Amino acid sequence: MLRNTTQTPLVIFSVVVLVAYAFIVATKRGLLTGVKSGGSFLDFEQEGIIASDSDLYFVFLQKFPLLNTAGLLFHTEVLVCPKQEFSAQDQSTLDQFAAVALQEDFVQIEETWWSDRTVNCVELGYGGSPCATSCCSVPHTHAQLSYPLNARSAVIDNADCTKKTVFLYGTGQFGGESAYKALCDRHNICWSHWAGADYNPFTNNCNTFTSTVLSCVYGLSEKKPDLGPSD
């Protein structure tokens, strides 16, 4: 009987990739799960940031499939939206979802709902680029500081923005600009300096960044909605 030796290298490669992926995920989980529920890793008083006594911001995750990857790879970003900019009815709805998210990590928001909401949020996203200073690859321009919840755009060029999905992770006591400052303008890093040169497709990518924002900054769950090998 003839043996198909052409498949052997592919099988070996697949096993190596799966083992490496499992190791990376275990490492990431171990390093990022040191945050207690409802608290953050960062010392905001050291950064001159005073948290409010109430939850004034909703913290969302937006997810995009990457172009030309057959829906297997994904890019994520965090959106931090002022609670007061939503209607009273929307605030009530999102508060209920946020309570569920505390128990179930996140809640998917229906497209028919978020696609009609134009509330301006702060967009926090990361990608690779040829720069070496802290957070130089985390865009923070007017476009990111006034990002409508229903916008279909990303900080990277190869995201399929037509297939955006949105998830609510919970609430926070400070806005996206304060989160950016705490994450980027400090000597003691949380996971990475987030320079473009720090980018690594396996251990320091856009989804590592959003896990860090959610967990180390806001004290929310770092779990993601079905990202597969991208996470």
Your description of this structure?
With 231 residues, the chain is an alpha+beta fold. The chain contains 6 helices and 6 strands. It has a 6-stranded antiparallel beta sheet with strand order 3-6-1-2-4-5. The termini are far apart.
Highlighted features:
231 residues; 6 helices; disordered N terminus; six-stranded antiparallel beta sheet; alpha+beta; single chain; 16% strand; globular
Sequence-ordered SSE layout with sheet pairings:
Elements: H1 7-32, E1 57-65, E2 74-82, H2 88-104, E3 107-109, H3 111-114, E4 120-124, H4 142-145, E5 147-148, E6 165-172, H5 176-184, H6 206-217
Structural class: alpha+beta
* Rounded mean pLDDT score: 82
β-strand number: 6
Unreliably modeled segments: 1-38
> Beta-strand level of the residues, as a percent range?
15-25%
The largest pleated sheet is described as: 6 strands, antiparallel
What is the string of helix and strand elements?
HEEHEHEHEEHH
Overall, the morphology is: globular
Distance between the termini: 42 Å
Q: Tell me the radius of gyration.
A: 19 Å
Order of strands across the widest beta sheet?
3-6-1-2-4-5
Percentage of residues in helical conformation: 25-40%
Instruction: Please report the number of helical segments.
Output: 6
What's this model, at a glance?
The protein is built from six helices and six strands, in the order αββαβαβαββαα. With 231 residues, the protein is α+β, with helices and mostly antiparallel strands.
